[in-house]
Amino acid sequence: MAVPEKFVASVVAEVSVRMKNPAYAQVAIGHFVETQPNVSKWVTAHLASEGGEAVMHAVFHSEVIAECVRQFRSAEADTEVESKVVSFPNLDDASIGDPLALLSEEEPALSGYITSNIENDALKRAVALFARALVAAD
Predict the structure, then answer these.
(1) Cα–Cα distance for residue pair 52/57, rounded to 1 Å
(2) C-alpha distances in Å from residue 6, one per residue of 10, 36, 59, 74, 119
(3) Is pLDDT larger for residue 138 or for residue 23?
(4) How many domains does the chain have?
(5) Has residue 44 been placed in a domain?
(6) Neighbours of 120 (CB within 10 A)
(7) Buried (b) or exposed (e) across 22-35, using 16+ Cβ within 10 A?
(8) Residue 107: half-sphere exposure toward Cβ, Cα within 13 Å
C-alpha cells in the first residue's frame, strides 16, 4: 500500500517546525548518513558534479522521504518500525526506467513531495530512486 498523502503532509509539517532549530538540517543529514550508508555513498558519487550543496539537499529530502515511510509503516504495524538499510542491489533495481515517473505511479504522495520541493532534475531523480529502493526494501 502506498504512503497516503496525510502521512506526507504530517511529516512535512513536523519538519517545518523542526527547521526553526538551525541545527536540525545537520542532524537530519547526519541521521540519514548513519542509517543509510549505501545510499549516502551512492548519492555522493552520482551527484558529485552537482556540488556538495546539492548532495546535502538530496540527502535531506531523502531523510524526509524515509521519515514518511517510517511513520506509515509504524502506523500499519501499530508499533515503531525502522526502515531497512537500502542495499546497492536495491538501488540498481530502482534505477531501471524513469524513477520519478515510476514513483508517481507507485507512490504518488512521495512523488508529489519530490516534485513540489526539489527543482533540480538530477536531485529529483536521485531522491525518487532512493524512495523506490526504500519502499521495495521495506
Answers:
(1) 9
(2) 6, 25, 22, 14, 23
(3) 23
(4) 1
(5) yes
(6) 14
(7) eeebeebbeebbeb
(8) 26
Report yes or no on 75 lying in a domain.
yes
Q: pLDDT for 25-84, tens place per residue? A: 999 999 999 999 999 999 999 999 999 999 999 999 999 999 999 999 998 888 888 888
Please indicate, yes or no, if residue 16 is contained in any of the structural domains.
no
One-letter amino acid at 7 equals: F
Does 58 fall in a domain? yes
Q: Give residue 17's pLDDT band: very low, low, confident or very high (50, 70, 90).
A: very high
Cell 519530490 locates to: 114
Range of the domain at 107: 5-10+24-137
Cell (9 digits) for 94 = 530502482
